[in-house]
Amino acid sequence: MSKDLKIVLVGLPGSGKSTFGKQLASVLQFPYYDLDHLIEDRFQMTIPDVFSRYGEGKFREWETEVLQKFLNREDSYVLASGGGCPCFNDNMDLINDKAVSVYLDVPLEEISMRLGLSKAHNRPMFSGLDQGEITLKLKSLLVERDYFYRQSKIKLSGEDFSAELLVSELIRLLKN
Ligand SMILES: Nc1ncnc2c1ncn2[C@@H]1O[C@H](COP(=O)(O)OP(=O)(O)O)[C@@H](O)[C@H]1O
Ligand SMILES: O=C(O)C1=C[C@@H](OP(=O)(O)O)[C@@H](O)[C@H](O)C1
Ligand SMILES: [Mg+2]
């Protein structure tokens, strides 16, 4: 790894990658980026539009392209990835090669409640689902994705994360 420090947050949709990512970036005084927004900027289309017009396959292709390019930048930042990002192509290996990956491991019931409350309007995988269906969908996603999330260099478990605690974990990791 080079002298810059890239932190990439991974975890299920609704685990708080975007929310915690902003807090962490502010504590570290690093710039914050959201991979979904980078994709939207690059292709001038919202994520729901990519899914409905081109399908998930095209989205995954674009996601890897944007991720790869961004990881090759020579600067420090916090990047919130999309929930599926680490689980397609070789994305988790790409992330671990260039960055410190952090898995936000939040209880499913909590995530389900958050997605129910936020109406999942910008999350095409959850649109139109009721609370029970959201929980079932999250369960099946976790079965598929846990294998990838578990490859993260740091795991934070719980519902609320402290940016300061993560900074001390980072220092420990970088010393070893
Ligand atoms: N620690 C938290 N406690 C309560 N609600 C949260 C917390 N973190 C995020 N949320 C809410 O959960 C929803 C999903 O958060 P978000 O950061 O967009 O997750 P992700 O980027 O992982 O999909 C948002 O409505 C957000 O306000
Ligand atoms: O889990 C997924 O496959 C996805 C999660 C979304 O990001 P968030 O995890 O920020 O919701 C977004 O990348 C897209 O809708 C697909
Ligand atoms: Mg997000």
TrEMBL record:
Enzyme class: transferase
Keyword Nucleotide-binding applies: yes
Binding residues for ATP: G14, S15, G16, K17, S18, T19, R123
Amino-acid positions noted as binding Mg(2+) in the UniProt annotation, renumbered to this chain: S18
Catalytic activity: shikimate + ATP = 3-phosphoshikimate + ADP + H(+)
GO MF term set: ATP binding; magnesium ion binding; shikimate kinase activity
Localization: Cytoplasm
EC number(s) recorded for this UniProt protein: 2.7.1.71
Keyword terms, alphabetized: Amino-acid biosynthesis, Aromatic amino acid biosynthesis, ATP-binding, Cytoplasm, Kinase, Magnesium, Metal-binding, Nucleotide-binding, Transferase
Residues at which substrate binds: D36, R60, G83, R145
A Pfam short name: SKI
GO BP annotations listed: amino acid biosynthetic process; aromatic amino acid family biosynthetic process; chorismate biosynthetic process
Pathway named in the protein's UniProt entry: Metabolic intermediate biosynthesis; chorismate biosynthesis; chorismate from D-erythrose 4-phosphate and phosphoenolpyruvate: step 5/7
Cellular component aspect of the GO annotation: cytosol
Cofactor binding, per record: Binds 1 Mg(2+) ion per subunit.
Cofactors required: Mg(2+)
Gene3D superfamilies assigned: P-loop containing nucleotide triphosphate hydrolases
Subunit text: Monomer.
Similarity comment: family membership: Belongs to the shikimate kinase family.
Role: Catalyzes the specific phosphorylation of the 3-hydroxyl group of shikimic acid using ATP as a cosubstrate.
Descriptive protein name: Shikimate kinase
UniProt gene name: aroK
